[in-house]
Amino acid sequence: MRKLSITLLLIGISFMTMEANNYSTDHKTRIYFKKWNERQKTVIFLPIEATIEENNIEVQFFEKSNEPATFQVKDKNGNIVFQDVVIPDKLEIYKIDLDGFKAGSYELFYIEESIAFVGEFQIE
After folding, report:
1. Where does the record locate the signal sequence feature (predicted)?
2. Long-range contacts at 112-119 (CB < 8 A, ≥ 24 apart)
3. 5-17: per-residue pLDDT in tens?
4. All structural domains of the chain
């Protein structure tokens, strides 16, 4: 009986801990990319991962490149509201400041020499 009580107590504590983790203050929104203007049924390596944290888009590179890449943010009307050219470095986290962006839908473009990816995100 005592073992059963201890087991139930441990199970209950683990569920409370999981629930507390769901309400933690570290909320990141992931931006999912797709290949732009092409329909392919092949697996494509995405060289970056982008998340929105607080008022920034944080981009983690997965490979180092000697070739420049372009970031663009376009609003729902297709207007470019941000553009920058960078040399990807997997040791750095590249940040795009979203201060001054109005609430609405946006697209984040990542453009390399021979390939482009687009991800959609919202600002509330």
Report:
1. 1-19
2. 112/47, 112/65, 112/67, 112/69, 113/67, 115/35, 116/35, 116/36, 116/37, 117/33, 117/34, 117/35, 117/36, 117/46, 117/48, 118/33, 118/34, 118/36, 119/31, 119/32, 119/33, 119/34, 119/50
3. 565 555 666 555 5
4. 22-123 (2.60.40.3080)
